[in-house]
Amino acid sequence: MSNATLELINKATNSHEDDRKYNFGKILSESQIATNPRSIETLQLNVTKLCNQACLHCHVDASPKRTEHMDLRTIDRCLEILAEYDEIKNVDITGGAPELNPHFDYLVREAKKLNKHVMSRHNLTVTFDGNPVTGESKAYLPEFYAEHQVEVISSLPYYQEYFTDKQRGRGVFNKSIDSLKLLNAQGYGEEGTGLQLNLVYNPAGAFLPADQATLEKDFKKELLQNFGIQFNNLFVITNMPIHRFKDQLKRRGGYEEYLDKLVTAFNPSAAEGIMCRFLISVSYDGRIFDCDFNQMLDMQVKNGKLSTVFNFNYDDLLTRKIFFASHCFGCTAGAGSSCGGETA
Amino acid sequence: MHYYESDDLKKFADVGRFRKELMNKFFSYYNKVVGEDGALTKREKALIALAVAHAKRCPYCIDAYTTGCLEAGANPDQMTEAVHVAAAMDAGITLVHGVQMNNVLDKVGA
After folding, report:
1. Which residues of chain A make contact with B41, given a CB cutoff of 8 A?
2. What pTM was computed for the model?
């Protein structure tokens, strides 16, 4: 047996042990919380794992070395689904740095033609760094986003350099500030323009995030005062104990302690609003998942058959059983956590 | 083995093994004072608690309030300043006793 196979078996065994020890399904049933899918309001598309950054807490393990991209055939199939279902109002495009998918601009334009609300998980620095493989410039992005009225959602772990660079790499804070200024210059974050600029905070370590409203107030005050930057909302999210962050916790010997913290902070009202009840997540190769985290753990939706965009059936997907595992405690701790911030 | 084990903090409530009602009163008071926004925010209270933890040299409290401050949205600059406040107060408290020394010096005519 190869070392790689042994490593995979070990990972799978450890993961099953975690799920037994930190039994999310049991807590949900004890709390009598409904966990059935309610709707598919959002189609979240993970269009690439390539990124110009390699952040410490990235659950996608994205980096300049990744090569996975959603191809045009899969993107066209997603657009067909969006055209067919009025119920799906939002397209949430993520990655990696989603703009590094060669068909990104096409996807945005076509989704807008279908009158969908388009969100892009834009890491800010890609505007300056461009494509790390081809060297292609991405300096057009602020203008492109404004022209197509895309909601821009950008990670900024803190309003100071220290926490931001610690998590996202040296120089990222200053570059992010410059990029935010370019978005502001297009009218993003300014009242009355309709151009939504939302920032995402996640803790720079193994601790839970502070209250969203309080942090938003701090971010608004500090960014305006120190850099003249405006934005609309701050989404506060909890670090998910999977992939890079999990490895980091294990290396520091704090994995169990972090999981215990998440379990202790379980909040039933946050659990009611978990995002997997309202969206589905599509991987670069067209497979369907309950959320981006399940996608990264390869927990594909199975409703009779493995779900993909090529056998997409809206009504069938609403009858699916959402897959839960120990990492789901990350979405229900404290005030809850989702791609749109708190859920409680 | 160290005399202080960080895991022992989890046993804090066991101090109520006897005369539980007294410990319950303490926890109720403690949570009301420290765990809620009041005239001071939870973050301000956490920073005060961190400073006191250092001044009183309580390793349990330093563990708890380092994380507590971060979870209240404080940053390492603010936390370090809080520790400096404790240190400056400590130094000031020592130095102000120099007045007592001077009083004695005056009294003995030295």
Report:
1. 214
2. 0.90
